[in-house]
Design goal:
Family: Belongs to the alphaproteobacteria porin family.
Distance between the termini: 76 Å
Main location: membrane
CATH class: Mainly Beta
Function: Forms passive diffusion pores that allow small molecular weight hydrophilic materials across the outer membrane.
Number of strands: 20
InterPro entries: Porin_alphabac
Oligomer: single chain
Order of helices and strands: HEEEEHEEEEEEEEEEEEEEEE
Number of domains: 1
CATH superfamily: Porin
CATH topology: Porin
Radius of gyration: 31 Å
Strand order of the largest sheet: 2-3-4-5-6-7-8-10-11-12-13-16-17-18-19-20
Protein name: Porin
Length: 410
């Protein structure tokens, strides 16, 4: 029996070989043209009409630039010791031992910039996606944080979408480890810009107030703050650009709509002026910036973003507005082509109405960094910041920070 099992595979293999000899042999014909086994490709073509990095989207006349940034940093913070329930607002944010003195962060940006010349003129679409993971978001269960930082379309002088406020001008030179008091907000806007000769331009815009409104303080729990908006903010700006630098004048108006229906609304307004001046006598990339911003019932336009500060206070049956004023500036100096230092400073004064629970206060913010760029797009450096807040009839409180950052822009 065992011998039969051993010879059985041998017999089967001979049978299979015999069958194979009976099959017809394939006929090979010579071909005059080689067989093309690869689909034709539309090779990407460089588009140099809008600067470096653009290429034509295959099959279109649209030029696209893909870019981005990866940023990592470690921040040490000494938190401000604010008075309890400062300004009459209960602070329900993390306190004491719940706070992270060390914050580690990783953040990425992906930018897409599409441009084309059409029968209607120049058309541009831009978007910037941002993703952040850090110690705070991980601890409080909010990680990762994904947001659409910017997304807008430009054509025929119009800019529509989410972009930086057209009121803003200088928004910092340093890494920014502490808050500095100047207007710096992204919002939905619909703007029109008319460009004249000699670098002069005028812009008018309507913008979503939800990113700026601080509302009205009534002193009644659940009735402090802002109601839903009924009208956009209005912004106008005049700007000049030249080899010497740039300058800007801007103004804004906003509707103060209280959360409580019995509280009368008000109109807030703001103005700003600033200049960025190139300093070629110090270095080819050196520059300094100076600006002034004032808000009357529109404190965000002066860079005041504290939750305890309201645009207005309901006192004695009247809605009384808060005034805010800020002076700020910055300076950049290249020590060598690969090493630069930046310095930012701001001084803000907040004047609340008589009878408001929040006292008048002023604030000084200082921030300095030293940055090394060994190769194009790569930066690493340190940043140190200090802030002192000085309320009337209350002791001062301060905060400090130290930041180490590495980032690559591509």
């Amino acid at each position: 029996m065992t011998k039969k099992l051993i010879f059985l595979p041998v017999l089967l293999s001979f049978g299979a070989a015999a069958q194979a000899t009976d099959l017809p042999k394939p006929v090979y014909r010579a071909s005059s043209e080689p067989v093309n086994l690869v689909e034709p490709l539309d090779y990407v073509q460089v588009c140099d009409a809008y600067g470096e990095g653009f290429f034509y989207i295959p099959g279109t006349q649209t030029c696209l630039r893909l870019s981005g940034r990866v940023r990592t940093d470690a921040l040490y913070r000494r938190f401000a010791d604010k008075p309890q329930n400062w300004g009459g607002v209960v602070d329900d944010s993390p306190q004491g031992r719940d706070l992270n003195s060390m914050r580690f962060r990783a953040r990425s940006y992906i930018r897409m910039d599409a441009r084309s010349d059409t029968e209607f003129g120049f058309v541009r679409a831009f978007s910037e996606l941002r993703a952040t993971v850090d110690s705070d978001s991980e601890r409080y269960g909010e990680s990762p944080i994904m947001d659409l930082n910017k997304a807008y379309i430009q054509f025929g002088g119009f800019t529509i979408g989410r972009t930086g406020s057209l009121f803003d001008f200088f928004t910092g030179a340093t890494f920014g480890s502490v808050h500095r008091d100047w207007s710096d907000a992204n919002s939905w806007s619909a703007a029109y810009t008319e460009v004249f000769d000699d670098g002069v331009s005028v812009t008018v815009s309507v913008e979503d107030p939800v990113y700026r409104a601080h509302g009205v303080f009534t002193g009644v729990e659940g009735e402090n703050g802002r109601a839903g908006n009924k009208a956009p903010d209005a912004v106008a700006a005049f700007r000049m650009d030249g080899d010497w630098g740039s300058a800007k004048l801007s103004a804004a108006a906003t509707h103060i709509r209280p959360e409580a229906a019995y509280v009368p609304g008000e109109v807030g307004w703001a103005v700003g002026a600033g200049a960025i001046i190139n300093l070629p006598q110090l270095g080819s990339q050196d520059a300094m910036a100076l600006q002034f911003q004032y808000g009357n019932g529109a404190v965000s336009y002066a860079g005041i973003d504290d939750d305890e500060v309201f645009d207005a206070y309901y006192i004695g049956g009247d809605t009384r507005k808060t005034e805010a004023l800020s002076f700020s500036g910055g300076f950049t100096h290249y020590v060598t082509p690969d090493v630069r230092t930046d310095f930012d400073a701001s001084y803000a004064v907040v004047d609340t109405p008589t009878g408001a629970p929040l006292p008048d206060f002023n604030r000084v913010s200082l921030d300095w960094d030293l940055v090394w760029s060994p190769v194009t797009g790569l930066e690493m450096g340190v940043d140190f910041g200090y802030v002192r807040t000085s309320p009337e009839e209350t002791k001062d409180f301060d905060e400090g920070s130290a930041l180490f950052r590495v980032q690559k822009t591509f």
